[in-house]
Amino acid sequence: MREVLQLLRDGEFHSGEALGAALGVSRAAVWKRLEHLEAELGLTIHRVRGRGYRLASPLSLLDREAIAAASRSAGWDALVFDSLDSTNAEVLRRLAEGAPAPLLVLAERQESGRGRRGRSWVSPFGENLYYSLGLRLEGGAFALDGLSLSVGLAVARALQEAGVVDVGLKWPNDLLVGGRKIAGVLLELSGDPAGACQVVIGIGVNVNMLPGAAVAIDQPWTSLRERSGQLVDRTELALLLGCWLRRYLERHEREGFAALREEWESCHLWQGREVSLLAGAQRIDGIVLGVDRQGALRMDVAGQERQFSGGELSLRLRDDS
After folding, report:
1. Which of 41, 153, 183, 196 could be joined to 125 by an S-S link, Cβ 3.0–4.6 Å?
2. Active-site residue 316, yes or no?
3. Whole-model pTM?
């Protein structure tokens, strides 16, 4: 399957004869493989008599060897899959089975990608970055407070280096450009946070998905490709993200989120804005003051400062702000 995609990834037409010769199979076998790609991966392949076959859009496939080599140099194990239910779920399964950590898992596609508050994360084949890093923590030595915010900073710096200079953070785990979502962070824990536990850092980045694609997303979004106007190398972005993530994780481990608090606030798009904080059916209106040393949101609510934290909270700009 991957051999066919390597030949078609440029988005240009390739004749059935040329594809068959390159793969060492008959033209009929080529046809069957292409049908399989469409059925299994949800790809659209155009067929034009006299010209051959091409993908509806060029693909940037992940380079497994490059990712594995870079991860080894950092002391991480790395696995790249064509398709998974969820990269976070795969990391949790492998850590539960005793796999060494840190463990990095990426996939070309997720069948059941997930975001915060039980939402699904749209994960078409070969379009975006589906990236999960698993850590095994012993004895509560690694401060989990504010970890997702530290990770958000790492993602922001990676995107800025990739050319998205106007990316910013939205508490707690979103990254926005021009008011539209470009990336998100999801942390999942297993075990006792005060003792031995595993934490999975899940990162999703909209890389080459374009508006108008047949995807159902319940909020405004953008992608690196939309911003730059050109196909983005997903392997280069994954390697860049790994570098920034290691840097911020090391600092978080040494000094905790408190050392990164000021930097995080400087990147927060909604500092000083009037917002509504939603917690189930409850709505709390106020003004964002920043975050505290543990990463909790600080708000001025009716003239009093209050702090809020928790995975089920959602922040929205006030209609009149």
Report:
1. 41
2. yes
3. 0.91
